Amino acid sequence: MQRCPVPAQTIIVADDDKTYLEMIKDVLEDEGYPRVICMVSPDVEAIAQERPTLILLDVHHSLEEEGWRLLNFIRLHRDLQDVPVIICSTNPVLLEEKGPWLAKQGCTTLEKPFRIDDLLAAVAARLGLRERSA
Prior knowledge:
The protein is α/β, with parallel strands linked by helices.
């Protein structure tokens, strides 16, 4: 299946694993998303400067508090407060515990490792795009 991305979409992928970042960037660009920006440990101003339409934010064990802090800053920033966020984590317990709070923040979650189809479906859903047959 291919998605119908809108040309002006900008997707920020924030993670500390450069290999993961490049893989996600390649997948999204191959799917037709024209502007995928990878960031390692970004601050909220760096994200805001790119004017994203979607943020994929990794929250992992060693830097968990940093991830939640960044999400709070995103939600408080006037230019980012309404931008959809997909939280990715390898910790299913964390995602379940934070689920109600994340829902209030307007976030969805994606447990790692995930299937590429699940990633693409989550991105399309958060951007309000429909799938089309190849």
